[in-house]
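During the second half of the funding period, the structural biology subgroup turned its attention to how the target accommodates small molecules. The most pressing case was LLP, which had performed well in the primary screen but for which no bound structure existed. We therefore specified the complex as follows and requested a full 3D prediction, including the ligand pose.
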Amino acid sequence: MGKERKKGGGKAYQKAEEKIMGFEYINCRLSCDGIRIEEIAERIKTPFYLYSKNEIERKFLLYKEAFEKLSPLICYAAKVNSNIAIFRLLASLGAGCDVASGGELFLALSAGIDQDKIVFNGNGKRGDEIERAVLSDILIICDSPDELFLVDQKSTQKQKKTRVLFRVNPDISASTHPYIATGLAESKFGMKPSVIKELWAIGRNLKNVELVGLSSHIGSQITEIEPFCENARKLASLASELKGAEYLDIGGGLGISYSKEKAPSPKDLADSLLPILFDKGFKLILEPGRSIVGSAGCLITKVSYLKESHKTFIVVDCGMNDLIRPALYKSFHEILPVSQNKEEEIIADVVGPLCEDGDFLGRERKICRPKAGDLLSIMNAGAYGFSMSSNYNARLRPAEVMVIDKDFHIIREQETEEDLICHQRIPDILR
Ligand code: LLP
């Protein structure tokens, strides 16, 4: 009580009695749901991902409240962060799951997500993945005519009737990184409306599939509302021409604020979609990911060296294998000291220990001069952080930790060297 709190970004102050949400400074020490991160780092080896249960919950409930009038099924996008503790938490709040591989389907089912709240996305589902989905009565989002026929064939073999949505390529341009704009005409995802109409007529005659609606996802990290509205209008209009179409799945994609960009809230999105979708009679499905878990996670790392070269480098113990977004998309992640100090500010590149110059976490950052052993927090790393990590340079993937009700819990152990070797074999001929 009476402590001075400052939000992670260093902007807003909060009153002590408010429920502590996410990452904020308390007396110059960065904390997660009220627990000092330094305290966690005494017990967990860096680097590690740290998640705030309160923040995940808050972000999910923002969706639920904002969309109340449309009562959608909110299928959290598994690829964003596929830790099953997060699946479980979201399922307990009523979420379903959008999966995009047999592995994600396995994880969602293992976490206890209701099979009738799972949708199966993706443009290259293998036969065995389709078979598993068919056996588990999962709603499949078909991305091509051939996939529809394969779903029908597998369903016939297994004596099942599988519910199917068609993924539409809506030809919508939303400003985001070109790798993650998935609704453009040239994108590999979905089918043209003309193909959808023809295929719908054919699919209605197939015995073991039931066509129940349309789906589309226009991209990720989108911070304007209009493309979502355009998508909803196009889907609703196409669906109204298709007999039996009862579901509209409008995908995910709502962006978050990584630095100074202003991101719309789920309420802004819901308010704009309501006039388009209300009273149309469709059952709505949403597939948000980043906007639920992005701000709820950070990557905690330790400074190994401070090096003066032609530039100043802060070398930390995490790298592009732990968080690839800066290297892959030149994404910006705020980097904050876990313990604020009063040292002079320097401009430095924050780099990892891997053997590539693309191995950076932040370039030309203004930061109070840290020393070896200091902890830094790479913010907004809850989405597409761990889930895109790798063992590059034979580095061990980090632990994941979640703060739940004033205590912290390991939700994934750090890998061991044994993990690096356990699936490898030296054939006898080489011994
Ligand atoms: N639904 C579908 C079909 C998707 O492909 C995606 C993400 C989502 C939902 C969730 O979108 P969100 O709400 O998270 O924007 N690795 C990139 C992002 C790739 C997005 C892939 N699709 C990144 O780190 O920015």
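Two results from this model are relevant to the next phase. Residues 9-17 have pLDDT under 50 and may be disordered. The radius of gyration is 23 Å.
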